[in-house]
Amino acid sequence: MKLYYAPHTCSLSPLIVLKELGLPHQLIKVDNQTKRTADDRDFRDINPKGYVAALELNNGEVLTEGPAILQYLADLKPEAGLAPAPASWSRVRLQEMLNFITSEIHAGMAPLFNKELPPTYFQQRLQRRMATLEAALGKHAYLMGAQFTVADAYLYTVVGWFAFFAIDLAQWPAVAAWEKRIAARPSVQAAMQAHV
Ligand SMILES: N[C@@H](CCC(=O)N[C@@H](CS)C(=O)NCC(=O)O)C(=O)O
């Protein structure tokens, strides 16, 4: 499998999951400005949407969209428990959480990267959404319960951008404690070293 990635972006989360699962993979860096890959191809020929992450399977299929990639990877090794069994109620709950992260946190932060937009509205909106995650992590060690799942890899990635906007994670103590635990995982450290 090939993971197309760009440093400091959401492609970190599938890389954490690849490391968690010990799955063989090749990393291909993408310049998000020029849309050229490190092996000098036009990234839009691989993913016409032009953004990372994109996962190229050994059969040539290219899968995009973080939540789909994360669940595909988790299902390659169900015994690792990074996602509950497909069609189970717990799986629906995981999908609910992944959708919340992707649409409310990840996409909700996108306007903060745009210097032409005033940040206040988006920061306040994000803070309301974070209250939901603070409540979840106040109840259990990981987002979905006692077990690390792909949702933790995803949220860790997007919460990592808060520092760029001087958003202090300490205002959500349960999220801040969880973030430290996730950062200490060997898979996360390996992914952070490779995602440069
Ligand atoms: N809906 C996509 C969004 C992916 C996305 O926002 N990728 C960003 C990095 S985090 C990107 O590559 N942006 C460059 C661009 O849109 O040109 C997903 O959830 O995977």
UniProtKB/TrEMBL annotation:
<keyword id="KW-0808">Transferase</keyword>
<dbReference type="InterPro" id="IPR004045">
    <property type="entry name" value="Glutathione_S-Trfase_N"/>
</dbReference>
<dbReference type="InterPro" id="IPR040079">
    <property type="entry name" value="Glutathione_S-Trfase"/>
</dbReference>
<dbReference type="InterPro" id="IPR036249">
    <property type="entry name" value="Thioredoxin-like_sf"/>
</dbReference>
<dbReference type="GO" id="GO:0016740">
    <property type="term" value="F:transferase activity"/>
</dbReference>
<feature type="domain" description="GST C-terminal">
    <location>
        <begin position="87"/>
        <end position="196"/>
    </location>
</feature>
<dbReference type="InterPro" id="IPR010987">
    <property type="entry name" value="Glutathione-S-Trfase_C-like"/>
</dbReference>
<dbReference type="InterPro" id="IPR036282">
    <property type="entry name" value="Glutathione-S-Trfase_C_sf"/>
</dbReference>
<dbReference type="Pfam" id="PF00043">
    <property type="entry name" value="GST_C"/>
</dbReference>
<feature type="domain" description="GST N-terminal">
    <location>
        <begin position="1"/>
        <end position="81"/>
    </location>
</feature>
<protein>
    <submittedName>
        <fullName>Glutathione transferase GstA</fullName>
    </submittedName>
</protein>
<dbReference type="InterPro" id="IPR004046">
    <property type="entry name" value="GST_C"/>
</dbReference>
<dbReference type="Pfam" id="PF13409">
    <property type="entry name" value="GST_N_2"/>
</dbReference>
